């Protein structure tokens, strides 16, 4: 990878390549825990974490919210300048990947042919910068939710003409993905849901969504996309009720429609909490189904009831997430994408670096602690012991499918009363503190 990408203009002057300086450093523009070359469990941190920069929040978000106009002014004014700024930033922060929506990087247009022409030109710009830097595309996607045409959904829209318009965006995005060597392709159903069942045929809409995803899968494979298709669960917002509510719902949908061999899940921390789950729960559900694909790394504000997309700084939550990810054998072709934005009052370009440094250090520290836990082995041993009654005898026969319901009843009637066995939750939580801070 090139040290720093240099376009026609330097957009982040005075900031060089962010280096690892260790825990003792007080330099705010240096990593304290993320040493990309440090080997942990047989791979470097860079290989484990596979960090990606999100085009939309980092280079498009202007600080606006439902109650106020933008506060952040970007010095890049068009697609080429934005691409130069993006690759300068990505190479300075040292992330190996990036992600984007179509209209984050390329000008939108009502005309399909004009939209496609814009996208083709932008894809060429991105490819040139990828070749110059070695930065890779983790995944891209199509924004089929922001434009007013998608107010009633895209693949689930009651108007076939809108569904077809969304298909044009997905086709163009898949074309771009193959050219750029994308390792995954994401679907996020921002408007794939409903506000009221009074005017919604939910069964028909879900069947349309499955057919749409099937056609996209078939086209992607036809043009040479060999990566993983990803669906990103979220329960609501902007729709009142979105069809991809959480991991379990998406897994059931994929299996019902025979898509589970091509699709996995992209889990976002903030979406997990909006669904009433924890981040590690959603990761675990996907991992246990063999469908954990990638991660959008952020956090939400527990006092706010919406998707705040803050940079991850909670090491405890990141640790529990990394424990699942490492137990899963990693993320395969996926990675940790910072689907996060600086706060409305963080208006300096330098703040983008502080935010990414913090997020990368958080997960690097979580990775180190996870490895410490795995090397120690005590927590795994406690978990195994809790289920030891299934390792032999009748418990093992049950797991092997060798017992009937009558057999279970007879065992219960004959067996002596058993003592209560503590789950030791508080002790385990104290152990995590010791691993983190001891």
TrEMBL record:
Copy out the cofactor comment.
Binds 2 magnesium ions per subunit.
The cross-references to InterPro entries, in alphabetical order and at most eight, read: Xyl_isomerase-like_sf, Xylose_isom_bac, Xylose_isomerase
Gene3D superfamilies membership:
Divalent-metal-dependent TIM barrel enzymes
User: What reaction gets catalysed by this protein?
Assistant: alpha-D-xylose = alpha-D-xylulofuranose
Entry EC no(s): 5.3.1.5
List the active site.
101, 104
Q: Name one GO cellular component term.
A: cytoplasm
Under Gene Ontology molecular function, one entry of this record is: magnesium ion binding
Q: SUPFAM superfamilies from the entry?
A: Xylose isomerase-like (SSF51658)
Q: For this chain's UniProt record, which GO biological process terms are given?
A: D-xylose metabolic process
The record lists Mg(2+) 1 as bound by 232, 268, 296, 339
Q: Which UniProt keywords apply?
A: Carbohydrate metabolism, Cytoplasm, Isomerase, Magnesium, Metal-binding, Xylose metabolism
Location of this chain's protein in the cell: Cytoplasm
State where Mg(2+) 2 binds: 268, 271, 307, 309
The coenzyme or cofactor needed here is: Mg(2+)
HAMAP family for the chain: Xylose_isom_A
Q: How does it assemble?
A: Homotetramer.
Report the protein name in the record: Xylose isomerase
Source organism: Spirochaeta isovalerica
Encoded by which gene? xylA
């Amino acid at each position: 990878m090139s040290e720093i990408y240099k376009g026609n203009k330097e957009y982040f002057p005075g900031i060089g390549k962010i280096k690892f300086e260790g825990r003792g450093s007080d330099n705010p523009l240096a990593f304290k825990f993320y040493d990309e070359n440090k080997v942990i469990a047989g791979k470097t941190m860079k290989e484990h974490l596979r960090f990606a920069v999100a085009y939309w929040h980092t280079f498009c978000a202007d600080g606006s919210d439902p109650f106020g106009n933008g506060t952040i002014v970007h010095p890049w004014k068009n697609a080429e300048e934005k691409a130069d700024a993006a690759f300068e930033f990505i190479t300075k922060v040292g992330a190996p990947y990036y992600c984007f929506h179509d209209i984050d990087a390329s000008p939108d247009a009502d005309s399909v042919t004009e939209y496609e022409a814009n996208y083709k030109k932008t894809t060429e710009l991105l490819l040139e910068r990828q070749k110059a830097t070695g930065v890779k595309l983790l995944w891209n996607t199509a924004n089929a939710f922001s434009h007013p045409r998608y107010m009633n959904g895209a693949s689930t829209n009651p108007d076939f003409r809108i569904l077809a318009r969304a298909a044009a965006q997905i086709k163009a995005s898949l074309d771009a993905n193959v050219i750029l060597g994308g390792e995954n392709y994401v679907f996020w159903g921002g408007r794939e849901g409903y506000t009221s069942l009074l005017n919604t045929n939910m069964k028909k809409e879900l069947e349309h969504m499955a057919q749409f995803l099937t056609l996209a899968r078939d086209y992607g494979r036809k043009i040479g996309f060999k990566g993983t298709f990803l669906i990103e669960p979220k329960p609501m917002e902007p729709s009142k009720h979105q069809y991809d509510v959480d991991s379990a719902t998406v897994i059931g949908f994929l299996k019902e429609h025979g898509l589970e061999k091509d699709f996995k899940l992209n889990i976002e921390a903030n979406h997990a909490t909006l669904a009433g789950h924890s981040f590690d729960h959603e990761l675990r559900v996907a991992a246990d189904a063999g469908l954990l694909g990638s991660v959008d790394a952020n956090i939400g504000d527990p006092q706010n009831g919406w998707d705040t997309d803050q940079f991850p700084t909670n090491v405890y939550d990141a640790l529990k997430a990394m424990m699942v990810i490492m137990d899963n054998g990693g993320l395969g072709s996926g990675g940790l994408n910072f689907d996060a934005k600086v706060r409305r009052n963080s208006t300096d370009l330098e703040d983008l670096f502080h935010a990414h440094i913090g997020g990368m250090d958080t997960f690097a520290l979580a990775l180190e602690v996870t490895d410490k836990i795995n090397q120690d082995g005590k927590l795994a041993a406690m978990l195994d012991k809790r289920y030891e009654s299934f390792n032999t005898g009748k418990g093992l026969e049950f797991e092997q499918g060798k017992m009937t319901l009558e057999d279970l009843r007879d065992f219960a009637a004959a067996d002596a009363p058993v003592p209560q066995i503590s789950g030791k939750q508080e002790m385990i939580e104290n152990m995590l503190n010791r691993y983190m801070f001891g």
